[in-house]
């Protein structure tokens, strides 16, 4: 039993960016001298395009081992993700200072040394660890040093695996939907025993799919068993590195450049008509996701490339499909890129960038997007809009307008051809604003370890 508990503890702690561990470590028992009001925890979510710092608080007088955790404050440092400071001595650590300084002000001084702090990095750092393990280790070491120079209780800085990130998203979504537990009005944690929902996440450098399945998971790397709140869950989870937003755009451009030649002018069917941009060819091949496509002859990374949008849905779809690989599958069935996937089952929640794409499609076209056919119709309409038409319909999205055709077509290929959502399963996807444990205002997070022990005993 002790071994099992330990296992539960480790899994959950890992999944929740160590938040649960934080709670376990710092929930006071009865040795507090003064009646404290709150305990605090700090999580630094180091994504590929930016880092966010969240401070949580929870009542310090818990005896039951359950508590309502709420977000206290948050902070978004200026600049890019920590991986973008690779090779710039001291910069990654320095980029966190403004937020850590804020934390020292937001958390009462008497609580500083009791406040655990943890940094979890995702796909941006996984990519850096591929292109330069030395730089990635350096960046992690540096942010670790910076965090340790503050008076908090340092718990570590680590890169989450794709599997951990996928499962983390799934646990988060289901916590927030109260599918595991519910804090009743009478002050008890209840187990609603509901069905869980699958999670579809779209980050800057990777995309994840995670759901409960009864089918056999033929590739054990994509299988995860969780024991949460007295229930066993058998998950399928896969994280596709290089299929995050920024990397998809880069790969698509690299693909077009390789196909059309890498000098002079280029036509981009996923950019809207009337949009053009000039860039250095070298910026397309600087990522582990595109480096293999670097032109072999006459390649000058400094050469300027002029890219002009043509807003053509069919050509965009054709090129987008080519950045996936749908042939050869070593298992009974695959999503793409030789990755096993059982049939999707149950309801899903698509969040982060998927929500914004879906919302943009619906509001600019007036089409309700609830089936694959409607997704195609709306994507076709968005790709056919010129940049000035888009600007009229969605002026506040100005800096991102050029990306919506590509992002919509990507979503279509990924969901329908890749994951295999069809007329029946697609309508069971709900698109929700970024549901992250790390950025909702109020979360009901029980201290799962204690709770599951209660359940066993009762
Ligand atoms: C647990 O919490 C409830 C509600 O806050 C309280 O009524 C009960 O006495 C607590 N139990 C223990 C063992 O402290
Ligand atoms: C970097 O990748 C290697 C090889 O996959 C892995 O062993 C190592 O743990 C990774 N580094 C970090 C800091 O996660
Ligand atoms: C590239 O496009 C610009 C503007 O669209 C045009 O002025 C220029 O002549 C073109 N260059 C080539 C090599 O086609
Ligand atoms: C990719 O885009 C280019 C430029 O618009 C076009 O010529 C080509 O036919 C497209 N490829 C596919 C497979 O649609
Ligand atoms: C998966 O779906 C396909 C097509 O809908 C179906 O033929 C197949 O039997 C399903 N597999 C399982 C294990 O349910
Ligand atoms: C695309 O837009 C043009 C005018 O901008 C319009 O004539 C055409 O019908 C549109 N096509 C589709 C498929 O919406």
Structural write-up:
With 458 residues, the chain is an alpha/beta fold. It has 14 helices and 17 strands. The radius of gyration is 23 Å and the shape is globular. The two termini are 15 Å apart. Bound molecules: 2-acetamido-2-deoxy-beta-D-glucopyranose (6 copies). The site of one 2-acetamido-2-deoxy-beta-D-glucopyranose (NAG) has 7 residues, from α9. Its cofactor is Ca(2+); Mg(2+). It is a multi-pass membrane protein. Pfam families: GDA1_CD39. Keywords: ATP-binding, Calcium, Disulfide bond, Glycoprotein, Hydrolase, Magnesium, Membrane, Nucleotide-binding, Transmembrane, Transmembrane helix.
Topology summary:
Elements: H1 2-15, H2 19-26, E1 38-46, E2 51-59, E3 69-75, H3 91-95, H4 97-106, E4 116-121, H5 123-131, H6 133-148, E5 153-159, H7 162-176, E6 182-183, E7 189-190, E8 198-202, E9 206-212, E10 223-228, E11 231-241, H8 245-260, E12 264-268, E13 276-280, E14 304-309, H9 313-322, E15 348-350, H10 353-365, H11 372-383, H12 387-393, H13 404-418, E16 429-431, E17 442-443, H14 448-457
Parallel strand pairs: 1-4, 4-5, 8-15, 12-14, 15-16
Antiparallel strand pairs: 1-2, 2-3, 3-17, 6-7, 8-9, 9-11, 10-11, 13-14
Helix pairs in contact: 1-2, 5-6, 9-13, 10-11, 10-13, 11-13
The structure holds 2-acetamido-2-deoxy-beta-D-glucopyranose (6 copies).
One 2-acetamido-2-deoxy-beta-D-glucopyranose (NAG) binds at residues 129, 133, 140, 159.
